[in-house]
Amino acid sequence: MSRTSPDLLPGTLDLLILRVLAREPLHGYGIAQRLKTISRDVLQVGESSLYPALQRLLLNGDVDAEWASSENNRRARYYTLTRDGRKHLAAEREEFDAIVSAIQRVLQTA
CA 22 to CA 83: how far, in whole Å? Predict the structure, then answer.
């Protein structure tokens, strides 16, 4: 059975990409695969969402990118988290945790 990803809250994809890149530099396909694996196939991010998010993060200075050979010897653009990206990740994570906590409180008491 094919599964589609649930709609993410605005800004959540950027947060997830930054978190994945905090571990190690990856190319776009690697980022999508890591998100899929960690989420146990719930989050399946397509190219039409992933690459605009990566471009936005590049323009904001949260990630850097450089071309290199991938595991299968193909040319791929590898993304690396910057110092500003780490700060952004920490701030966004704190804000996201507060929102999730608030939603959980409402769901538990409503």
Answer: 10
List domains and CATH numbers for the chain: 12-109 (1.10.10.10)
Residue of 13, 33, 28 whose CA lies nearest to 68: 28
pLDDT along the chain (110 residues), means of 10: 59 94 96 96 92 96 95 93 97 94 92
Q: What are phi and psi of 28, to 5 degrees?
A: -55, -50
With the C-alpha atoms ordered 30, 26, 76, 64, is the resulting torsion angle positive or negative? Answer: positive
Quote the pTM value. 0.87
* Nearest residue to 21 via CA among 56, 59, 64: 64
* Greatest CA separation for the chain: 54
